[in-house]
Task: structure prediction
Amino acid sequence: MPGTLIIGAQWGDEAKGKITDMLASKADIVARYQGGDNAGHTVVVGGQTWKFHLIPSGILYPRVLCVLGNGMVINPKRLWEELDSLSARGVDISPSRLKISRQAHLIMPYHLALDGASEAALGQAKIGTTKRGIGPAYMDKMSRQGLRAWDMLRPDFRQRVIRAVEQKNIWLERVYAEPTLDPQAVADEYAGYAERMRPYIADISPLLYDAYVAGKELLYEGGQGTLLDIDLGSYPYVTSSSASAGGAAAGLGIGPRCIDRIIGVAKSYQTRVGSGPFPTELLDEIGDHMVDRGAEFGTTTGRRRRCGWLDLATLRYSARVNGLTEIALTKLDVLSGLNRLRTCNAYQVGGETWTDWPADGEALEGCAPVYEELPGWEEDLAVSAWEELPAETRAYIAHIEQRVGVPVKLISVGPDRDQTIYR
Ligand code: IMP
Result:
């Protein structure tokens, strides 16, 4: 099946990087469709560690064409930092390897300034963003004031940048009492990026469609996760893009029928970074065990991730809203050494029991998880076949499948590629 979509089924950081990398090695095209450099994933190839924020890790495979979709917001400065560092390590970054949608929006320096200023103004109620300017860039997109990659091809690009900076200076100065930006300096900087980006900017919709029709292998890569989706996540504690399956078609200019397989990547426990309710959060030594064994620190911001028991009510929600065809279950080895495991299958709210995730940041605040308990295992899971997994581990996976109603086809028991079990 040529069109495979891979998405985060939780609050991001599901270790999508490894799964994406494995699938990318067999793909012809890897395309990202939303978000920007708020994403971060690490892949280990041949003993070398690579960190990616904007560029799909598929760039490491010479036959793969990487695509940045129209649903994305791209910070050209960060794009070039990433491309230059790849190039310095011998990766071919010529325009034949990477296409950027002409409709993708640009992250400008004022977006970063506004992200920081807005978070500071919110005080205790802050979202806990990555401060990469993501929200303000999508605000401009929706209010039809954004600058797009396409504008970089137009002769008056500098003037457009100057006008945009002048406008945003009013906000910075009058609303947030923040320092303003020098319009000429920003225009000069972005004119330089435009010069370099021009050969990469393309109409990606026909490119993807033609490849799909020709039977090529396409991998669509989602950033963040379903519970951070602007429409379907734990609003307002979400990112500003469509991180779930629905975003893929709109963010790439393809029809939904070009998506044949939808893999939800889920961690074997639950994590989140930033603010917002988290019913199964563990603020005890079990949570510390997950942070330590799972190295739960953000790739983009280095923040310690909050950890808790696996929430199957959210996973069931994810399976429904994304139409998951399968689950890739990651970091199962992190649970080794815990003698009892819990999963949340419903919430207690007042006198009521909710089996569906309410998808509302405020309603979630009052939710107490209803847990089920299962036996844990001691073994470190250094195995490569399903039959070799401890009986308790297999029972844990069977329990997930039973409660969520989606098969777990891939199980990851460590960061290396060979620490993967297929079913
Ligand atoms: P923003 O995307 O920077 O606006 O941040 C909004 C929320 O999404 C915050 O809670 C961030 O921590 C979270 N977030 C954004 N990107 C990621 C990611 O790649 N992984 C996990 N959380 C993310």
About this structure: The chain has three domains: 3-102+200-263, 105-197, 266-422. The chain has a mean pLDDT of 95. The longest strand covers residues 338-349.
